[in-house]
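Q: Give me a protein?
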Amino acid sequence: MKYRAEAQFHALVAKLSWAEWDAGRAVGSLTASERLLVERLPHAVALRGSEWLDAMVGDLRSSSAFSCLTLSALSYADRQLDDVSGLWASGDLRGAVLAAQRGFVHVTDALTASCGHPGTDTKWRLRRVEAAGSEALGADEFWRLSTMHGFDNDHPELWLDHVTHRCSQIMLDVRIGR
């Protein structure tokens, strides 16, 4: 259980305003604690003052918060997918598979954040995909790719090719901005 002062919420929303986004100051400005707050606030339960909490969640949704998280996840995904290319080209297929798994995780987090369901916790990722309801990635496909369904240890390049291609397609469907 976390307790926050009202001033902390207002400061966070101000930090993530669209004016701050446009000035290039919002992206990358979140601390780890603030990231968790942005991820968790939409799911918070008010002990008192549910109207206030609803207003704060509305303010958060109207800010650049989810776009900041989306862009951050896309950046991580891009780096992982670059690693896949380098590892694959050097013949390190096992390393490439591990990088592709991480890349897919970040692409998924970017997609769900862009749909208003941010988060990075593994145990809730499938639920976020379901809640997002995006045509770019459904829950069944997410599950198949996450569990490496159909992976052939003798031909990992087939899985790598499929996953990296799907990551690229999904990234094109991720929306950032107002």
